[in-house]
Design brief:
Layout lengths: L1 E7 L2 E5 L4 E4 L5 H8 L2 H4 L13 H10 L6 E6 L10 E7 L4 E8 L8 H12 L6 E7 L3 H9 L3 E10 L4 E11 L1
Parallel strand pairs: 6-7
Antiparallel strand pairs: 1-2, 2-3, 3-4, 4-5, 5-6, 7-9, 8-9
Helix pairs in contact: 1-3
């Protein structure tokens, strides 16, 4: 799992055995809208609304590619393994004191195939933010994502709650930490 010297949108392109983690492209809008329009995906995140409003995907891509963006977003591109060019997304948001927060989702058609685990490990290995510590949170009803984190070396830190736009409610979360 390595970082290319190629930089797009000021982010490295990362590679693993079956994935290319690359910055978003305008051409990704159709598949992203299809996947994020799925209630199961939206309800697994804090910020994706359901139903997905028209233009939301294009606005998200514009924000993710802006020079003043607040997080790096990578597409999980499965083309190297003859899969979809968009399997899901992974984000890395820089925090203070050399810390970052990681988040991810995978489209339901690709669940239980190890893509989330592979993408998280790839970002950990590359450590593009040169973080000393990574944080993550998952909703407590998303045990699959909790397993992705613990299998990648994250330790349980505590319980909290976060607002889910799709659920229109605060949802209990588990918070995780990984020292690099």
């Amino acid at each position: 799992m390595t970082a290319d010297s190629t930089i797009t949108a000021d982010q490295p392109i990362l590679r693993s055995a079956r994935l290319v983690l690359r910055p978003l492209q305008v051409a990704d809008a159709g598949l992203l809208a299809l996947y994020t329009g799925d209630k199961r995906v939206a309800e697994g995140t804090r910020s994706i609304p359901h139903p997905l409003p028209p233009g939301a995907t294009e606005q998200f891509i514009t924000r993710a590619l802006a020079p003043n963006r607040t997080e790096d977003v990578w597409v999980l591109d499965g083309s190297p393994s003859q899969s979809s060019s968009v399997l899901g997304l992974l984000s890395l948001k820089p925090l203070d004191r050399q810390q970052s927060q990681i988040g991810f989702w995978v489209a339901p058609a690709f669940w239980n195939a190890g893509f989330a685990s592979e993408a998280v490990r790839c970002v950990i290995d590359a450590n593009p933010h040169k973080a000393r510590t990574l944080f993550a949170e998952v909703f407590q009803d998303n045990t699959a994502s909790a397993h992705v984190l613990t299998n990648a070396g994250f330790d349980y830190l505590g319980d909290a709650e976060a607002y889910s736009v799709a659920r229109k409610a605060n949802v209990p979360t588990w918070t995780y930490i990984r020292r690099m």
